[in-house]
Amino acid sequence: MNQEQVLRVIPDIEYDELVTVLNITRDMNTSQQEQFLMLYQRRRKSRQELLLLCLLGFVGVAGIHRLIIGDIALGIVYLLTGGLCLIGTIVDIININSLTTGYNAKQAYETAALITATFNQPRNF
Predict the structure, then answer these.
(1) 93 phi/psi in degrees, rounded to 5
(2) b/e for 88-112, b at 16 or more Cβ within 10 A?
């Protein structure tokens, strides 16, 4: 798999994410790489999407972005405290790049593990 194939499937991918995807799929065969890209494309979040969800904290619905990325406890705390009086929301807006990169890297590794497990299962005929 090369950069062009990944960019064709995921056009809004960031450079760090692209490097992670290329490293993960390096040892996969073509079929595994195609399956990986299809699954990963559905599981990942774009930076703009998480930023918009984070900005909802300024209109009274804070913490949705934390719930989406799987940080359930902090998301509930943000919901109940108004984003920790907006301080947590502002910090998250500043750190939205690292939140998105961390979430997408976790999803990429989980997707790779799923693909590897699926293709390594013995066939029972």
Answers:
(1) -65, -40
(2) bbeebbeebeebbeebbbebbeebb
